[in-house]
Design a protein that fits this description.
Number of helices: 6
CATH superfamily: Leucine-rich Repeat Variant
Helix content: 55-70%
Shape: globular
Mean pLDDT: 79
Number of domains: 1
Strand content: under 5%
Distance between the termini: 39 Å
Largest sheet: 2 strands, antiparallel
CATH architecture: Alpha Horseshoe
Low-confidence stretches: 1-12
Length: 126
């Protein structure tokens, strides 16, 4: 079963976040991840954040709107903490995923969150 852990050194590590997991499991994990990322703003993060960002990009295209919302929120926090992770996200196809989300938006919360992610991605090119 996927789980989150916070090692004693203060680094955040996401283990076994499976984009094919059921929506309820993903919602639970993404909610926990968002809580951890909010608190981790000034803590050093492990390299697992980059692999987490790649999974989050994939989750942007999940059928569950709540999963997509939580994934985009986690990406916003991750990009704020680790701006260089936006490069990995762009290479993983985040622009395509964000475009699809904006073209098929049915929820204003998702639209606002996706626009926040777009802002971080655009800012990384400066």
């Amino acid at each position: 079963m996927p789980y989150l852990s916070i090692p004693h050194c203060g680094k955040v590590e996401l283990v076994n976040l499976d984009p094919n997991a059921d929506p309820d499991t993903l919602i639970s994990l993404l909610s926990a991840l968002n809580s951890i990322l909010i608190l981790a703003s000034f803590q050093p993060l492990s390299r697992s954040l980059l692999s987490t960002v790649l999974v989050l990009v994939e989750l942007l295209e999940n059928d569950s709107e709540e999963v997509a919302l939580l994934a985009s929120r986690a990406l916003t926090y991750a990009f704020d903490i680790c701006p260089q992770s936006t490069t990995a996200a762009v290479e993983a196809g985040i622009v395509r995923a964000l475009s699809r989300n904006l073209l098929s938006v049915t929820d204003m919360d998702i639209a606002e969150q996706v626009i926040s992610v777009v802002w971080f991605v655009c800012r990384s090119g400066e």
